[in-house]
Amino acid sequence: MTHEFPIEHFFKSNNPKVNGINTSQNTVKSDNKETLKPSPTTSGSNDLTSLENALKGALKTTLNDYQYTTYIADGLSLKSFEQKLIFHAKTNFIMDTLRNSLNDHIKFAIYEVLGKDYPFEITCEVKGSPNPTPPALNRPKSAKEMKFSLDLNTTHEDKNSEIESNYLKHMDSSTKSNTISANKNFKNFIVGASNNMAYNAALAVAESPGRKYPSLYIHSSSGLGKTHLLSAVANGIREKYPHLRICYISAREFMKEMIYHMRENTIGDFQKKYSEKIDVLMIDDIHELGGKTGTQNELFHVFNELYNREKQLIFTSDKTPQEISGIEERIKTRLSWGLVVDIQKPDLETRIAILQENAKQLDLYLTDDILTLIASSIKTSIRELEGSIIALSAYTDLMKSDIDAETVKKILKIQDSDHATKLNIEDIAKASAQYFKIPLADLKSKSRSKDIAKARHIAMYLSRKLIHATQQEIGHFFGGRDHSTVISGVRKVEEQLKTDSILSRDIFEVENRL
Question: Is the pTM of this model over 0.70?
């Protein structure tokens, strides 16, 4: 019995031509049923393209934008379909990721498009490699005659590919596991104006779980440190309270676990586990429960039970509770019961500190100018900052070469800006005055009113931090003040930043205006 390709499932219309593929020919009768037999037309490049587009369309609905763009859109192509589908991956890294992490997504897409499961294979043709030649059927060689050679030379293209692979692997959020990282703690979490409130809240939870903030909700854009804080809390609790039972899980895995127990008619075991056997429950990406009413119902009861028993609840999301669509109002209310904090994009000083910490961990030396260059170019994601250090570390390991500014620009694809302007004290003072809606002249005046002094001190602090202006230069700009006055104002801001989240937000907003 032969297994023909089920191409008929790909076509949803009775029209002889669907998506430009001719389906009206080459049918054969078998057991009084008509079955489409693959033909040269069916295997043509136009047909492959149409099927490839359909499969990619199905994949796009199940993957996030990063996964689809990186691994599917330009990284995967359909080479042939006979007894099975043969896909070609652009690089070995993409091939490995598709095989290991996205295999089920491809299987699902094939089922969606073709109407049933069908075998497939993912290959990666190494550019320029010769086709293997079958061994000659000669007599076996003696040990003296046996020779083999090992080519240890790696091409420049191979090295660049490996550097890029290291970076992409780090950036791929789909590979994030539901395990607590022992390497992520409060000591190596870089604290700045953009995240100090979230840091202090997480630290308080680790020191006293279930008491000060029985429910903590942290929200931010992707790649700004939420997962790091979750691991830091878990590691802190384990160190101080080793008897407490911690559960760290993504919202999606929480839902999958609930569905499994429902299918097995063991939902009572699921409810007992989360209501009675957990002291600290951490659910990552809670927004993924939007529209999942069954899972929300279980979460509602779990939340109530743990909250009433004074256990610790921690949630993360990319939105505030009220901004999540498809979430019942009663769930939003409970997510808002405790402390809700956010993490903003890191400022320049924090970004430089993050780069320094990651370079230190990888034993990578980078000059201050290079750190500033990277931090000035990557502004929105801590994960991207970390990825840049990984790429540069891979470069030094593979190329055995030092890193200069031009190398950094090439590896990280940093473009020179012809319109870049250099900040000065006046720019910073204007930004502070505009944010606080105070005339610039008032910042230079002798006025000591609370609002004006606050705006002035922030401008002084940012002048030191961003452009390293001297106390004399700052004092001269702000009405001829003594350098000791400037020192006092800057130190006051630095001390308040340790506990004042409102001041942190104000500084962040002023800096964003620059």
Answer: no
